[in-house]
Specification:
With 314 residues, this protein is an alpha+beta fold. The chain has six helices and 14 strands. Bound molecules: zinc ion.
Length: 314
């Protein structure tokens, strides 16, 4: 498609609101519980009927950060026909060679807490599609989308601005292994997690321990979620644990990662969890509950990462 034609067709889709989509399920306690387990949020207003009833909410509410999950339709919808301006923009960009996608930004605003039983519907519109930008992943265009969530009475309960990058993957232009110049993204280093990465460089897996109540926590943060103490120390983990959950990423192939990419949530025997890669096992053989141990892998000259491998002779 000629660039002018693409620009004209994209422009015609900007600002158009798609048809309302009904959330597949009402807001419900089981999904709330699963979400809270996954992110280790123990706030009783999300989980405990009785305590929630005595709180200022007067009953269970959903974590606001769960917003997006209520509109997710699951894998089946990927093959069934989606319509609306977003689907049209995405297929136009696909046809123009921007076949890969990565989410780059998400901003949510909440008008009220959601409660079990709320039936949501959402509408989306495209706010903007950028000109082509040269990014580290390849040349691409940013797509800004606005989604508005409404309850059964039509009142807005939340809105989300979501930005994705549709790009032409560099790897696709060059078959074979990723060029060595592309290195793994550096972990975000903050004053809160500096001890963790220092430990990794020294071959130790450290867990933050509250000095007030002794609770272990990960990822690191400035304050204990249990007793609100700012005082903390560290405990060296044994490095042993189990696969609590995992996903196998196949697409899009972003260098320098190898695919299929086995991404695991490890539960350490001390009880905290961390996200890592499982190595030394075929992704088809990964299992929840699999005993694993940490291995400090030098992935490039300047980066050591705590990865996990199955415990031998299990
Ligand atoms: Zn504490």
């Amino acid at each position: 498609m000629a660039p002018e034609e693409l620009a004209r067709r994209l422009a015609s889709l900007i600002g158009r609101e798609g048809p309302p989509e009904r959330a597949p399920d009402p807001v419900n306690a089981p999904m709330i519980r699963h979400f809270c387990e996954a992110v280790d949020d123990r706030n009783p207003v999300y989980l405990d009927d009785e305590r929630a009833a005595r709180s200022l909410h007067g009953g269970l509410v959903a974590p606001p950060a769960m917003l997006q999950t209520w509109g997710m339709r699951g894998l089946a919808s990927r093959t069934s026909g989606r319509s609306g301006p977003l689907a049209d923009v995405l297929s136009l960009l696909d046809e123009s060679g921007y076949t890969s996608v990565v989410a780059t930004n998400c901003r949510q605003e909440y008008a009220r807490y959601l409660r079990p039983g709320d039936r949501l519907s959402l509408t989306s519109q495209i706010l903007a599609v950028s000109d082509e930008k040269d990014t580290a992943l390849g040349p691409g265009r940013f797509v800004d989308q606005l989604m508005i969530y409404r309850d059964a009475d039509g009142a807005e309960v939340a809105r989300m601005e979501f930005r994705i990058l549709k790009f032409r993957p560099k790897a696709a232009a060059r078959p074979g292994p990723a060029p060595p110049a592309v290195r793994r993204p550096r972990p975000a280093q903050t004053p809160d997690n500096a001890f963790f990465w220092q430990g990794v460089r020294e071959g130790q897996l450290l867990i933050q321990r509250c000095s007030g109540c002794g609770r272990l926590r990960h990822p690191p943060g400035p304050m204990c979620p249990s007793c609100h103490s700012f005082e903390w120390t560290t405990q060296r983990a044994s490095g042993r644990g189990r696969v609590h959950s995992f996903v196998v990423a196949h697409h899009p192939p972003v260098p320098p990662f190898e695919y299929p990419n086995l991404i695991v949530l490890i539960e350490l025997e001390e009880g905290t969890r961390l996200v890592s890669n499982l190595i030394g096992v075929d992704p088809s053989e990964a299992e929840i509950g699999m005993p694993v141990e940490v291995v400090f892998e030098r992935v490039d000259p300047e980066l050591v990462l705590p990865l996990f491998q199955p415990v031998s002779g299990r």
